[in-house]
Please model this.
Amino acid sequence: MTVADQPSFKARADAALADRTLKTAIERTTGTAERKRAAALSTFPEFEAARSRGKAIKDHVIANLDHYLETFERNAVASGARVHWAATDEEARDIVVRLCIEAGAKRVTRSKSMLGEEIGLPQALADAGIERVETDLAEHIIQLAGEHPSHIIWPAMHRTREQVAELFKADHVPAPDAEDPASMVQSARRVLREKFLSADVGISGANFLIADTGATCTVTNEGNAELTTTPPRVHIVTAGIEKLVPSTAHAFALLRLLVRSATGGELTQYTTFHCGPKRSGDADGPEEMHIVLVDNGRSTMIADEFREMLRCIRCGACMNHCVVYRQIGGHAYGGTYPGPMGAALTPVLDGLARSRDLAFACTMNGRCAEVCPVKIPLPTLLRAWRVRSWNDGLEKGVASAAVGAWAAVARRPGLYRLVSGAGVGILRLIGTTGWIKSLPFVGGWTKYRDLPAPSGGTFMARYKAERGKEAAK
Amino acid sequence: MSARDRILAAVRAGLGSRPQAPSDIEAEAASLLAEPDEIRPRPVDTTLVEAFCTKAGAVGTTIDRVTDLDAVPAAVERYLAAQGLPPSVAVQPDPALTGLGWEGVATHAAIAPDEAAAVGLAGWGIAEGGSIVIHSAPDSPILLAFLPVHHIVVLHTDRILPHLEDYAATLSEGGAVPRNAVLITGPSGTTDIEGSYVRGAHGPGFVHVILVAGEVR
Amino acid sequence: MSPASGPRVGLFVTCLVDAMRPQIAFATLHLLEEAGCIVEVPQKQTCCGQPAWNSGDNRDAAALARQVIAAFEPYDYLVAPSGSCAGTIAHYPELLGEDPVWGPRASALAAKTHEVLSFLVDVLGHVPTGQRLEASATYHDSCSGLRELGVHDQPRRLLAAVDGLELRPLEGDNVCCGFGGTFCIKYPAISNAIVGEKAAAIEATGADLLLAGDLGCLMNMAGKLNRNGSKVRCFHTVEILAGGGDGPAIGEPQ
Model:
């Protein structure tokens, strides 16, 4: 999905703000996630040291990415897997669709992968006339709703249980027994079971690519990844090139950070390493395993200030702790990845001109960086996009013009004293009661809140008057 | 130019020239795993077995303890009865299990899509998170751990490792890495509807470990 | 520490305090002098450049940074009643780092720049005593001070020394109020939703006063509370510490 052909960011945000049901849904999921993460960290005093190590591991991999890509490829091929390379999202889609067609696939099962969303795989499979069955419960929900994920860990977190019940009642045969989450989960289990076993191809992502074994690693809580990858004849993995780690032990070091940061658990229920296709005599498993290594802009990030974003392990903690995300949810961001990490990544994927609002729709409060398990300085990256946007001449609004005018005055202290003194005088005339209820140019402020009037003349003027010119050097 | 060459060229262009030899890279990677106790949780109990049981229990895995492998069929029978299930299970086609005396329980090899209960052998237990590990093999179907509602797992106490790294070390020591290695940490679950936890999504809703004292036969 | 031997401090007033609430700067001045500092107010100061910095306008931000550096480098310290402005000055080395002349000067100034509450406690080891205020208060941690400068315990320690003042915990005290500088003007509806929740959390404490260390955040929260008809009165922490708690709060007529 790209941000093209959508209403403006502000229109999307306004629509989200007006949707009180959405707010309820967001708060239920992110609030729970925030509490559980805090509880998990309270019993893991090693977290800070683990974070530093996790950052170092990812930095080491990126600094030697060519080495690890080649090592991984060599070992994956030795395991019997076939490795494909895709420089762009289009190349990645084409490879996966071609593999499905070559496998004669009528039905494919898919285990949740944000990379699959990033490269537009759901639409590509539909265009090729291949039945796609999403097996992650949340992806199943949004497939029924015809939507895109609104969160990278809880793709359907924008939907309340009542809304999920409506979708399931309309689609599931037999319908769910009741509207509580447990009954609905059972219903999805019933409906999807037969589809797992009859699929021709299973498509998964990867949380880690293990260089020294050539294995891919998936982590899930539902068990849908293994049911997606085991029964079909063909297993296709799509993974970003930044997912590499040197070894299984390095993956574990990152896994401890990932799970605690994402769900507040210690480990996911299932951590599975997939190393090649079915071996001679194996009781089950796919006859073919294909791994599609996807660049799609990642290699360009290595050389610029967004390199640090390649550390991201997609835990979602930044969005769970973001004041903006918690008000507008994921869809308003317009790209595949929402929240702070999405705001940093979407301009790479969709272009800055179409996503420039994302970097600005941030209060720069820094909580995302504070919770990031691999210490990505997200506010710094978002400001870097602001600089690019400013330098590219994309910031043409009134607010930006005002910033320029302000700076021009602020660079001349004498003029500044005159202007600030006059401005304070005017505001004091308007706000004789102490509060200003409405004011042009800052209508965005006074539409929602009152503006306190200046409490007196400027400090600089009063200081001069009170202490005399000598004190004011 | 192939996509592979384009990607590697772009990566190398981004990285600039680096004199690092592969052996230096490997040494640096290894150094990032030094002092593992600084970055992992401390054991929760004094013995490995107790630590495993505590953590497994915390994630919803139930545990029965028996003195030797011959006691497993009776333990399975007990579990099925306690769960109100008929005395019938799918059994992993590993001779160590199929060779036991299953007098009280009907056993079969095929795993039905809606299998009520299946019994398998764990390769390892990991105390850190209360995980059990299964490896794919000719006598170890992966679906045995995913299709049943009740996954009954036999684990020998001397196969319990302290930490995840200890399990990773067994992979590099043992040579061949299995096609599938699955770490199972509690029953299947989901929080996809409003973040509220529901047990038993696609995989088993119940994981029951029969802990066998002593060595693997 | 005798006044003659105390450190020379350049008071960075901040443009917002200069225009909107001078008593914050007077309170800061008072506290610093009481702690033995020789305080001066460089007249060449205007704004730290944060609006430009936050807008991605590096050219204007750098020009203002050079102006601040030139005005404040003669002093032992730059002290500001704002974590946000002090935090911006701490970013000057990023802005000017590649300039062989200004880069080192930026680093030197950043190293001696402090937010006033942390300066009192961490650098001067000074906790003002003898203030009395019979009131209950809750405290919001402004994000820049909290996350960029580590201002958390210091204001609580200072406020604990005010006799009669009862501090009540604020749910989500470390969560942004939605001000965000130009953010609140560019995305007013989102900002409003955020400050609406903050105002509700403040009201839920039942405290008489809301205190914080940054005027931007305070104006945002005070403005929302007043629009909601709240009775909570808002002050900068230094005002309370300097004995201004019985004077007019933010938005109250003088």
The domain at 42-212 of chain B is CATH 3.40.50.10420 (Rossmann fold). Chain B has one domain: 42-212. The longest helix of chain B spans residues 3-15.
